[in-house]
Amino acid sequence: MITSLSIKNFALIDQLTIDFTKGLSIITGETGAGKSIILGALGLVLGKRADLSSLKNTEEKCVIEAHFEISKYNLQAFFEDNDLDYEADTIIRREILPSGKSRAFINDSPVNLQELQELSLYLIDIHSQQQTQELSDEAVQFKIIDAIAQNKSELLKYQEGLKKYKTEIALLTSLIKKQGESIKEQEYHTFLLEELLSAKLMDGEQEQLEEDFERLNNVETIKEAIDKSLAIANEEEIGVLHHLKEIKSTFQRITPFSAKYQELQERINSVIIEFDDICSELNQQAEVVLSDPEKLEYTNQKLQLIYTLQKKHQVKSVAELLEIQNELDQSLLSISNLDAEIEKIKAEITSQEQELDGLAMVIHEKRLQSIPVLTAKMTQILENLGMPNVRFKIDLNQVATYFANGKEELNFLFSANKGGDFGLLKKVASGGEMSRIMLAVKAILAQYSKLPTLIFDEIDTGVSGEIAIRMGEIMKQMSANMQVFAITHLPQIAAKGDSHFKVAKSTVGEVTNSELKLLTEEERVLEIAQMLSGTVVSESALNHAKALLN
Questions:
Q1: Cα–Cα distance between 66 and 44 in angstroms, integer?
Q2: What is the spatial distance between Cα 486 and Cα 343, in angstroms, rounded to a whole number?
């Protein structure tokens, strides 16, 4: 329940702090006095959008703060899930800055509007003439029936199963689409893979092939160079090796004269040994350098194949071609596995459908049992509210579609007149009838579920006299177990309240202010008398007001 409301710099209100109690609270006031301002302030606390037009003084910030007693609402999980401090006396604060920016806080922790809106669903339920039209919405009608049917646990299981079911359906759709696309690509990918496999590529072979090709393609030049080099090295008397040996022999005569000459002699020996080894290598190469046209042709063809594949796949190495080959192989393997995966998901979907169908049937049966209870209670309450010939007919039709709340479509039919035909509630019920039906619905729901604080905003429009008294009595009965507010113009309803607040507007100079005041017993008598007779209060109106209050 809401225990207090503080408003600063909002619309026509400079500053206001008011405390509320449990039971039935009445709010009255002349048209335009500011009742909508109070609801607007509460709307901001509940997470509605704000703008600069909300500020009375645009140079100062607007602050609206509400205290809620939530110990009986079992909201610890909500606070834990949203990383908020849980307090039995929870404070919600909205601030609108002169810049137009808005901030929201729950127990001094900043929150976004979505979190605020989610929490507000558990705290306050505001119903106005306009919102009575929600009764025509099928989802709202199902909620009414399910509350009486006590379908909460079954619906939670069904909705969890439906979420998984939809996820699997989406996955199946995606896989089938992928399968269709893959089949189109499969032949081409198979061709590419076979082309790469037939090339029998090996990492690093391109460099070796290119070296072999250069050697085989220039065999005559290579052989000529080697033979000439050997001739220069080994030719008698004028060959390099002969001259080196001459140098060695000549230098040996002076080595005893200096350590430096000894060092040079050793280096000459090293040169001769190294050059002799080079000559041996040249002789070996001369023996293996042979013309091999067949190997040259094979090497050339293999290189051209590699170059063609690299150009086709837009890569520069055999290693990259081998990587593409592996990817194609994996791709074709995944295509072959798609069928098995699709069949597995189809089996899971079938199992989920069976589970959902079972839950939907349980929900359906409990709804069927609750409908006579609902129609009987609705009829009884509405007969007392001046609708003696009211009748309801609620049809549940099972369908194959999985809706968010089961597998049914609902027709909520209504007839207000004896012998009249049934028609859809939204088409045949008048505004006054819808107001009374809404009140009856809330009265019934209060017996079956824990409702938040209820605010009836002129829901009594279109009724008067004895019917208004009975509407007040229903609100009074509801307030025994919950906090109820009624914004009303009817004295018969105002007299039923446990507390009575009046919204009044005053003008001082050029400034207009609205205020909300808790009335004393004497002030309350006068207010109800004015509601009965107008501005000029007669003695009979005062007596009538006292009678209503008693």
A1: 10
A2: 59
Cβ atoms of 45 and 58 closer than 8 Å = no
Amino acid occupying residue 204: G
- pTM attached to this predicted model: 0.66
CA 415/CA 433 separation, integer angstroms: 11
Can you read off the two tokens belonging to residue 66? 């509400």
Residue 106 CA to residue 525 CA, distance in Å, equals 39
Residue 302, Cα to own-chain centre: how many angstroms? 56
Alpha-carbon span 207 to 215, nearest angstrom: 13
Question: Buried (b) or exposed (e) across 113-149, using 16+ Cβ within 10 A?
Answer: bebbeebbebbbbbbbbeebbebeeeeebbbbbbbbb
Residue 537, token pair as written in the block: 């209060």
Query: pLDDT tens digits, residue range 379-423?
Result: 999 988 888 888 988 999 999 999 999 999 998 888 888 877 888
How many Cα atoms sit within 13 Å of 131 on the Cβ side? 13
Distance from C-alpha of 401 to C-alpha of 165, rounded to nearest angstrom: 13
Total residues belonging to the chain: 550
DSSP class of residue 52 equals G
**82's tokens:** 């949203």
Q: Are strands 453-457 and 423-424 parallel, antiparallel or unpaired?
A: unpaired
Largest Cα–Cα separation, the chain: 156
Whether the Cβ atoms of residue 549 and residue 72 lie closer than 8 Å to each other: no
Give tens-digit pLDDT for 424-444.
877 887 777 888 888 888 888
